[in-house]
Model the fold of this input.
Amino acid sequence: MHAAAPPRRESFFERHGAALLMLAPLVVFLAVFYVVPFAKMVSESLSWATRDPGAGDGWTFYQYVKTYECARFGRVMGRTFRISLITVGITLAISYPVALLLLRSGRTLRTGILMVTFVSLASSLIVRNYGWVVVLADGGAINNLLIALGFIDRPVRLIFSETAIVLGLVHFSIPFMVLPIYASLLRLPASLRESSLSLGGGEWRTFFSVILPLSIPGVFGGTMLTFAVSMSAYVTPLMLGSPSTAMISQAAAEQLLIQLNFPFGSAIIVSLTVLTFALVAAYALIVRRTFRAEI
Done:
């Protein structure tokens, strides 16, 4: 009597072949439209900045040294970082209550809020920004309301400022914050809140001790998306800001499209990308160690 042969172990491709096939179009798309252009920018940023054909060949870090020694770059990067953090804070303060309302509201109200959220996400960014231009103009709705209420005697300059940029970015980012938080809250069993309340926790203590810590993965996803979108924003600061409120993407576009200094512009974009990824990675590490969240 022969012993039964041990079962054959499936290979990695046999176990995950279907998933790999479904991911293949996405991988190809990212490689063609992101990895290859970004690699080209990295190569361009390491080239010489001069048009003098006898200046030398090969790669150099001169563009990056020039970038970090440039006082204007430092001011613009600091402004970009500050505006992004303010946008994340305001968006989170608005979006978390909306996500809680979605969780606890009835079907009709929930459907209405989700429709408004998706309409805001689907509408044109340029149209939304023009709407803010109308609202924040010297003769716009906000100034007219403040004058009618007697708070001011003459229009206050609201448009073409950091405030206008923050408002535009918050408007754009709210769907990216609401939906991850709402998805995270949906995964929490309703019995958790009921158990906490039955043990005398109270609404506020239940929220801060149970609901908020368990929804941290959604908060992390929303804040990460909002921060990345704000750091790389171009259209909103261009339409709602001014040269004195320029963000880093505008500085890069100026070098690439106006000055035609492709090495310097590429160095700015590569620096922005690396800095954004580094900040997001540091943020993820802090969240993991502080809240013990699986992100």
About this structure: The chain has one domain: 59-291.
